[in-house]
Amino acid sequence: MDAGTSAVLGAAVGVVGTALAAAIAGIAGQRQVRAEHRHWRRQLRRDAYAAFIVKADEVHGALRGIEAELARPGHDLDGLRGALNDTRRLVQGDLADAQTAVELEGPEMLARMAGELTKSLSACSAAIQARIIGREGSDALGANESHRIRRFLNHVLNKREQFVSHARKAIDV
Predict the structure, then answer these.
(1) What is the pLDDT of residue 157?
(2) Mean pLDDT of 149-159
(3) Nearest to 63, CA basis, from 31, 91, 40, 42
(4) 140 membership: H or E segment, kind and range
(5) 88-115 per-position pLDDT tens digit
(6) Quick one: which H or E segment has residue 13?
(7) Distance between CA atoms of 82 and 49, rounded to whole angstroms?
(8) 106: Cα within 13 Å, side-chain hemisphere
(9) Is the pLDDT of residue 138 over 70?
(10) What is the pLDDT of residues 35-68, one digit of tens each?
(11) Judging by beta carbons within 10 Å of its beta carbon (0-12, 13-18, 19+), is residue 108 exposed, middle or buried?
(12) How far apart are alpha carbons 161 and 173 in whole angstroms?
């Protein structure tokens, strides 16, 4: 092989090496972008799930407090009606907004579970409302009435636990 051929061959190898290095760098860059995108999506989901749970817990806590106060003789029925109305607005406002974020971020199973949890909280609110409609005095709820409301509250906790369990899996925690 003469010097000219050797130089051409060397240059060709150099060009191929440069092209190969550029291709490898491009592939690595694409992998990095995909990894960053997956991380970003997980973070969006985590934030949506966390915001939803915080609002669901806020509603649950309010309902639990209302039930406990209703079970106490001498409660302020008008104050409890106001607290229940505030809680219902929270379900229809902040909790509904947080549920929408979960629905957008997905996956479908978690969106469905968020809807079930919201419905359970709404049903619990309705059960309490049904127990205080038409009440005039400040007599405590009967044992059966309190038990029924606590069953609703416990059902909500089960739905919450299911949502959190699936949310952890969805964000690979």
Answers:
(1) 96
(2) 94
(3) 91
(4) none
(5) 999 999 999 999 999 999 899 999 999 9
(6) helix 3-70
(7) 29
(8) 3
(9) no
(10) 777 778 889 999 999 999 999 999 999 999 999 9
(11) exposed
(12) 15
Q: Which amino acid is at 97?
A: D
Q: How many other β-carbons are positioned within 10 Å of the β-carbon of residue 87? A: 24
User: What one-character-per-residue DSSP string does 38-101 give?
Assistant: HHHHHHHHHHHHHHHHHHHHHHHHHHHHHHHHHTSTT--HHHHHHHHHHHHHHIIIIIHHHHHH
DSSP string of 50-64, one letter each residue: HHHHHHHHHHHHHHH
The pLDDT of residue 16? 66
Structure tokens at 19: 């092209």
Q: Which among 131, 122, 130, 132 is positioned nearest to 88, based on CA atoms?
A: 122
Six token digits for residue 71: 């079970």
